[in-house]
Amino acid sequence: MTTGHTSDTGPPGSAEPDPQADPQAEPPGDPLAGLLTGFTIGVTAARRREELSALLTRRGARVVEAPTVRIVPLGDDRALRQATDRCLAAPLDYVVATTGVGWRGWMSAADGWGQGRGLADACRDAVVLSRGPKATGAVRASGLGESFSPQSEGTGELLTWLLARDLRGRRIAVQEHGAPLDGFVAALRERGAEVISVPVYRWGPPEDPDAVRRLVEQTVRREVQAIAFTSAPAITGFLDAAHTLRLHAEVLGALGAGAREGGVLPVCVGPLCARPLEEHGIHPLCPDRGRLGSLVRSITLALPAGNRELRLGEHLLVLQGNAVLVAGECLWLSPTQAALLRVLADQPGRVLSRAELLRRVWVGSSADEHAVEAAVARLRAALGPYAGLVRTVLKRGYRLAAD
């Protein structure tokens, strides 16, 4: 048995977390608890979003849920049953499992039709290939074993492995993962194989397109500090929504800037998931292991790296995301107030004019300098006893009175 997995995938490039496989996802007495206080994070997952949101919330983050795609199961679909019947009509030589959720869905549907045992026997007599640890786990859970699982978790390495064999007259079943694998199947057929495509589910449009629209707009306004992606189709759906809103360039600019430059940090569960962003020249943060716990840990370690520390007398104030942490309490700010304070904090003590603040905080807005004055007043109100941090310099502008 040859295996070489390094990360966790469900649908293509996605995370399908297994708590037993990721015991550190939520360890008792987690030292990272609360470190995301002040940050707002977008969650685009179609599956397990409640778990991902809970992990982030427990660390103090505010979460914006906006699944950008949905998985449409095809358990009663005629095409799936016809494909299953073809698999049982004659012996199979190879079976390709591409995702855990898809494999389990196929086995479950076959059970419902009274064909579960026959399908398991047909797969047992064939050479089973699995793409990634979740597909491998699902194969083993069904009482079977894989002969090969590529380290890259990509279908390309599976195809290379198959094309190294004589495929003339061989029957190969390929479990699809959300979209037809046209190139994969065509290459096998060119070598003389009979290929049976097994469609178990499809990616569909989001159930709540308004939530996706709001997340796109929040990204452009830099009101979220990070967006978590757990599948490549989720990224594509997000960028498609931005294109529809004519905000594609603005979204790419925000994601490309990253959190430290006042942008939005894109975080992907693994390299396959990240490909749609990399095609646009954006290199997202990816954890070493493709687990939800590892994804959250990466976010938890990365975002606070952009914090600003300011000292006002005996008080140490930490500007973290959209909040100020001081003396054990959290003072939440609006995104505009946080952006204003962050610009002032870039060079504490330096006087910034209203015109400069307007240009740097209200990017692309039609606001005037009165908006700056109103925002400063609201910022001081939010800071409460620490309002003296923001000082007015008559006829010149504002500065931070920080050491």
Q: Which architecture of the largest domain would the CATH scheme give at its second level?
A: 3-Layer(aba) Sandwich
Structural class: alpha/beta
Q: What count of structural domains?
A: 3
Gyration radius from CA atoms, angstroms: 26 Å
Average pLDDT figure:
86
Q: How many H/I helices?
A: 15
Major β-sheet strand ordering: 2-1-9-10
Q: How large a portion of the residues is in β-strands, by DSSP E?
A: 15-25%
The description of the largest β-sheet is:
4 strands, parallel
The span between the termini is 62 Å
Number of strands: 16
Q: In one word, what is the shape?
A: elongated
In summary, what is this structure?
The protein has 403 residues and is of the alpha/beta class.
Description:
40% of the residues lie in helices and 17% in strands. It has 403 residues and is an alpha/beta fold. It has 3 domains: 19-69 and 205-305, Rossmann fold, CATH 3.40.50; 72-203, Rossmann fold, CATH 3.40.50; 307-400, Winged helix-like DNA-binding domain superfamily/Winged helix DNA-binding domain (Arc Repressor Mutant, subunit A). The protein has a 4-stranded parallel beta sheet, with helices on both faces. Strands 5-4-6-7 form a 4-stranded parallel beta sheet, sandwiched between helices. Helix 9 runs parallel beside helix 11 (271-278) and helix 14 packs across helix 15 (369-383).
